[in-house]
Amino acid sequence: MASGARKTVMFMATVLLGMAFVLQSGAMARNGGGVLSDGGDSGGGEAGAAVMIRRGRSLQESPPALSTTTRQSGLFSLDSCGARGDGEGDDTQALAKAWSAACASPRPAVVLVPAGRRYLLQQVTLSGPCKSSITLMVKGTLVASPDMSKWSDSNRRYWIVVRGVDGLAVGGGGTIDGNGEVWWKNSCKINSALPCKGAPTALSFHTCNNLRVDGLKMVNSQQIHMSVEDCTGVQLAHLSINAPGTSPNTDGIHVTRSKSVQVSDCTIKTGDDCMSIEDGTHDLHATRLVCGPGHGISIGSLGDGNSRAEVSGIFIDTVQLYGTTNGARIKTWQGGSGYAKDIIFQNMIMNNVKNPIIIDQNYCDSAKPCKAQGSAVEVSNVVFKNIKGTTTSQIAINLNCSKSSPCYDIALQDIYLKIVGDSSSTGSTCQNAKWRKSGIVIPQPCTGTN
């Protein structure tokens, strides 16, 4: 085959792959779009306009001139927008240009991060709405700048943000590398003498409905790896999330103020919660997860700063945990209000987990002791079912509930937890908890009070 013909075939194969992912996602967003720095809106500019904020300086550009073939195919590669892809030159603007052109496309579009290359990025926000369905196809690696000074105080909490894009599909099997080591060693949780400053979440989705993220690798986030906020209709699948167990606050998947969320077939190894399910989350199903190291599957923390929190309809099924601090956990602060209800943890295997089953309505993650307060987030209708394995502590079941707002309708069914490498039996403690059991439950619930 002639060289020109071979290139044409390879190009069209990439286009077809991207279009297939778009069609599979079923995304249908139909409005104008843009790219913004964190915290802004498009401000009524032309669809596809790119606005980058660089350390307090605004630079506005039109999308790059693109070939007729590129526009017609709907495939917008970072390389065609001037990216270097060597992991050293700043490719933030190339991503912004590719996104801007794709978001303005009247036909389904793909933003392609090519395989085999590393694209260095500063903070960037990719905004919609877009004129048609859009796919972010990550085949190579997006890597965060190691220079902390590239993040100002106004954008310190974010790295890559996708905002207001309905029907978005993200996939491709590539990697998002947060380059987090420099942030971790400057965390006050590592060095208490340092002033506390928030670190970026690697990948955030804000107000993105009908979102699908499938087949990504995420490593070494600066703080949280992936955050889903104010979204409805979310599918997260086949994610691999990896950071050292000593890395501070590196939650795997964080969900807040979102509805109808499905998480499946993910492996999460981090220094904090494998999944953190926060205020405003309703109708979340998570299944077939492998977790550890980390802090386990956590609902909360809820009600911090005397706030109101509401969480309901949480279904956690078929989870394996290895060496985690917690297994199935609900944590709320004193002084909060609201509820956490209609929750099921089932079919969980614990392997050397310190606190396999825990409800803590007296949670306190503060350098100073927390003051006792007279209100709490109400915890009710919680089921722990078919949970088995080993624990590293004597107390395998801990229901530490509030005196002012006791936990109630707590069901324990078919539980068998033993201490790893020890013939002694495990125990349990309860405080202000109204529970019932069915089937065989070992340890016997509430043999002690804490």
From TrEMBL:
GO terms for molecular function: polygalacturonase activity. Its main location: secreted. The active site is at H295. It catalyses: (1,4-alpha-D-galacturonosyl)n+m + H2O = (1,4-alpha-D-galacturonosyl)n + (1,4-alpha-D-galacturonosyl)m. It comes from the Eukaryota. Pfam families: Glyco_hydro_28. Keywords: Cell wall, Cell wall biogenesis/degradation, Glycosidase, Hydrolase, Secreted, Signal. It is an enzyme of class 3 (hydrolase). The keyword RNA-binding does not apply. It is found in: Secreted, Cell wall. GO terms for biological process: anther dehiscence; carbohydrate metabolic process; cell wall modification involved in abscission; fruit dehiscence. Residues 1-29 form the signal peptide. Its EC number is 3.2.1.15. SUPFAM superfamilies: Pectin lyase-like. Coiled coil: none annotated. Belongs to the glycosyl hydrolase 28 family. PANTHER family: PTHR31375. This is endo-polygalacturonase. It comes from Oryza brachyantha (malo sina). The lineage of its organism: Eukaryota, Viridiplantae, Streptophyta, Embryophyta, Tracheophyta. The gene is LOC102705334.
